Amino acid sequence: MTKKNQHLTTSWGAPVGDNQHSMTAGSRGPTLIQDVHLLEKLAHFNRERVPERVVHAKGAGAHGYFEVTKDVTSYTKAAFLSDVGKRTPLFVRFSTVAGENGSADSVRDPRGFAVKFYTEEGNYDLVGNNTPVFFIRDAIKFPDFIHTQKRHPATHLKNPNAVWDFWSLSPESLHQVTILMSDRGIPATYRHMHGFSSHTFKWVNEDGDGVWVKYHFKTEQGIKNLTEEMGQRLAGENPDSHTEDLYNAIENGDYPAWRLYVQIMPLEDADTYRFDPFDVTKVWSQKDYPLQEVGRMVLDRNPENYFAEVEQATFSPGTLVPGIDVSPDKMLQGRLFAYHDAHRYRVGANHQALPINRPKADVHTYQRDGQMRFDNNGGGSVYYEPNSLNGPKESPQHKPAAYPVSGVADSVAYDQDDHYTQAGDLYRLLTKDERTRLISNIVGAMKPVESDEIKRRQIQHFYKADPEYGIRVAEGLGLSVPSKRK
């Protein structure tokens, strides 16, 4: 049993002053690499499972192409988006998040939605989910969050006490929790769900002008979901139902497709918008920033070997091409390090050279050696830079666009802490029947929680989003109804 009043420390025993906020340059960052506690947490977290993925372990994938349908060259100079009608080959991996490699496909869980574009300027990875938001907004909390989704260290059972304890102490999770517990929490198949970047990214055009963007993949198959009862039954009858459905659809020539749209925000709006546009627990209203069509993604070829293609596929939001850059989103900033580091550990330092990950574009680097180096390792060519031997050199025109930063280096929170408005708006958008199923799913998930204190703490969050929301959950759990918003 954990002793009371113990100080949280680093792995080398030093006390931790802030375990909730990463160190940034000013309130918006970017995140500072000198935050050694953040780096230690993320690096250790990436090495906690051998050899399956720490998250997104269970998944399915397919090959296809992306075709540009609208001219977006005024916003981005990315070459694969340069001409209407242009096609770029791609590989997609869909997945569940929390479960192990052998877990069921039909569990209540977000779905990973990762796309690798093999562009002429190198690979571009768009690594998102089937939800537009996430549970947390700072990468320093990610290892702790995923620990709550994994198994109890003593019982080796899933632990609802940990899940709801963490969520109740992290009110920023409320928006995503509402989505997860709604009908959208269990997609019927991978084909019948949308995909989102969730994070904000930056597009830059040939003139160096930038805009903030969010990506939306809209399924052409239509949205279909499973009820809790259907999901549980399918988990027992066919735990690989999503994997089987995707494979069979493509095998039968019923190629799944999605339309890609973006929301576009002028750079200056980030300072005045009513929600922080870099907070991944929030969405941008489509009334404020309407969806603009970009292109169409089609999946038309199954993998020939699951391990070689699906299991060894590696994705990272830091795999970028000219014309597409990152934002100060603190969760995204941490992922830029963590994803590449996870692949170096899980697959190897040369994972980018594997056939499924190898760019179609020529690669010229000074990286050498490492485990599983299976090409000619650069032969006898020059292996350092700068050099006077006509080796590859940087191209200044491809530098990311500069942006100003200011502030004091410190561990700071986001400026805005409204965790309830968007969750409440979502609740009120649901139909009467959808609300009833949402409440039923939440009550069923919270009943196993042993602590009434945790339940009441979470109920307060529901109540602050919408009084009816909190009252119905409280009544379902047989607890006192909150008398007022605290």
UniProtKB/TrEMBL annotation:
Gene3D superfamilies in the cross-refs: Catalase core domain
Lineage: Bacteria, Bacillati, Bacillota, Bacilli, Bacillales
Pfam hit, one: Catalase
UniProt-annotated catalytic positions: 56, 129
E.C. code: 1.11.1.6
GO biological process, one term: response to hydrogen peroxide
Catalase core domain sequence ranges: 9-393
Family per similarity comment: Belongs to the catalase family.
Renumbered residue ranges of the record's region Disordered: 1-27
Name of the protein described by the UniProt record: Catalase
Binding of heme, residues: 339
Reactions catalysed, as given in the entry: 2 H2O2 = O2 + 2 H2O
Organism: Priestia koreensis
InterPro entries, A to Z: Catalase, Catalase_3, Catalase_AS, Catalase_clade1/3, Catalase_core, Catalase_haem_BS, Catalase_immune_responsive, Catalase_sf
Keyword Disulfide bond assigned: no
Top-rank taxon, per record: Bacteria
A GO term for molecular function: catalase activity
Cofactor or coenzyme needed: heme
UniProt keywords, alphabetically: Heme, Hydrogen peroxide, Iron, Metal-binding, Oxidoreductase, Peroxidase
Gene Ontology CC: cytoplasm
Alphabetical list of CDD domains matching this protein: catalase_clade_3
